[in-house]
Amino acid sequence: MTAPHPVRGALLCVAALLLFACMDATTKYLSASHEVPLIVAVRYLGNLLMMIVVFAPHHKMEMVRTQRTGLVLVRALCLAMASLLIGLALQRMPVAQMTAITFLAPILLVAIAGPLLGERVGWIGWLATLGGFAGVMLIVRPGSGLPLSGVVFVLCAVVCNLGYQALSRVLATTEKTAALLFYTALVGSILFSIGLPWYLEDAAPSGFEVVLFASLGIYGGLGHFMFTAAFRYAPASLIAPLNYLQLIWAGLLGWIVFGDVPDGVTILGMIIVALSGAMIALKTRRPPEKRTA
């Protein structure tokens, strides 16, 4: 059993969140000159390759053995669709605002946990849910400058991510983590590879873009590994609220790379969403599910 080390766990979590933000920023950068399905396909294929090379020698049959295969595949499909929708949203809107809206998924999970999962919601859960909605309304309000298409894409991604997280909670009692990670990478790779003939480009990417494409799988694979490792050293009650630091990373990268600076009302909405999510995290005190593969 790994000895507790809260500082190491917190640092691993913060580093993982930076990698996830880098993955989103890289996706947005590449989407300016390449098709989003191509970008997502490369990311999933890179993630699958890392799973096979790094994890397969250690986990072997654990990676492919499941008890509820149908639900495992549906969960993977939900994440694949969320990844595509998030890429389409990033093509149209700033990284920080997109990230803030996606945090609606773990907040909404509390609202459906009662009727679907048999969990007690409580007044803190409902208050956090309403707060999350209010924060998102401030972000997407008329006059915010966000394109309607981008908002629609990211809200659809929230729905898909909600399904992914709900199934993750259901499957956590019967399935191995290695298998869940492997099937998300496998299903996404197959799904987007099938469509490659329709969005494969004639012009080859530049050398710099090749590096960026290659980095996507590394960001996702290494980020998930570090995020999982964080819970070996620190309790969920410490790690879960730290998830919302991803908003800070997203804001910094959006400013540095794209020059995007949210206005005061948008920042207020992002803070409300983060606080609502932190309330949920402290209430549940269990490892939250991530949206990116």
Could you explain the architecture of this structure?
With 293 residues, the protein is an all-alpha fold. The chain has one domain. 77% of the residues lie in helices and 0% in strands.
What is the structure about, briefly put?
The chain contains 13 helices and no strands.
Q: How many angstroms separate the termini?
A: 27 Å
Average pLDDT level: 83
| H/E topology pattern | HHHHHHHHHHHHH
Q: Give the total of domains.
A: 1
Structure summary, number of beta strands = 0
- Output the radius of gyration: 18 Å
Beta-strand portion reads under 5%
Strand and helix map with partners:
Layout: H1 6-31, H2 36-59, H3 69-90, H4 95-102, H5 104-117, H6 122-139, H7 148-171, H8 177-194, H9 196-199, H10 207-233, H11 236-242, H12 246-258, H13 264-284
Helix pairs in contact: 1-10, 1-12, 2-3, 2-8, 2-10, 3-7, 3-8, 4-12, 4-13, 5-6, 5-7, 5-13, 6-13, 11-13
Key attributes of the depicted protein:
single chain, 293 residues, mainly alpha, 13 helices, EmrE-like, membrane
